[in-house]
Amino acid sequence: MSESVAGKVVIVTGASAGIGRAAAVALAAAGASVVVTARREDRLKELTAEIEAAGGKAISYAGDAREEATAIACIQLAIDTFGRLDIVICNAGAGNYKDLVETSVAEYDDLMDTNMRSTFTFCRHAAPPMMAQRSGLLLIVSSVAGLQGYAGEAVYCATKFAQVGFAQALDGEMRKHGVKVTTLCPGGVKTEFAIGRGRTTEKVAASGMLEAEDVAESILLACTQSAKSRIVQLTVRHMGEPGR
Predict the structure, then answer these.
(1) Is 97 a residue of the active site?
(2) pLDDT range class, residue 203, cuts 50, 70, 90
(3) Quick one: which of 94, 64, 61 has its CA closest to 75?
(4) To bridge 22 with a disulfide, which of 50, 166, 191, 212 should be the other Cys (CB 3.0-4.6 Å)?
(5) Which helix (H) or strand (E) holds 119?
(6) Is the pLDDT of residue 125 over 90?
(7) Is 123 a member of any domain?
(8) What is the value of pTM for the model shown?
């Protein structure tokens, strides 16, 4: 039997837009208390106001998910405000679709830090309280680009493959402590993700890609598995997108 997220405490990174924002709204609507974090404080305030106006519970922390101090502060905020921490959605991320010879070392560092370092910092500091309470879920939003390489996306794929491998290893470590680890691998999603870095607003709007709310529903599914079951990896694609 599936579990409810009502009363659960959830942190969502990269919550100012796209998948993170949609996930925070969906989780709060389902009864979770949500801590939302991103760098854009104005958007976080708008999000928490929207959630509270709908009767939900939310608090925000503005910071860079790549920085260890942000992860520590968010986790402490969740525990201090709501008394515990049950779920962390590691969603902060960026794209940069370029051929290898057009990609600088600085761009490599930025993408790896944004996608993988942010995942590490939040999992690293969420794990101890979850292990202590012998329950919890670390959900990492990767990509189908973490399952298959695509031309023009070598560095992006490297960061997403890194997340998948990290999650697979972490599943083996955390399961004995009662903590679940899930990797979500969406296909194309209509968000501002990678706009100006290989995607344009016009092409995204005209595409048949998933909506952020579609992915949020998959996140909600992973968060409501029964206590004795876990989704290790979930791939979500839009109906017109080939997959394997």
Answers:
(1) no
(2) low
(3) 61
(4) 212
(5) helix 118-133
(6) yes
(7) yes
(8) 0.92
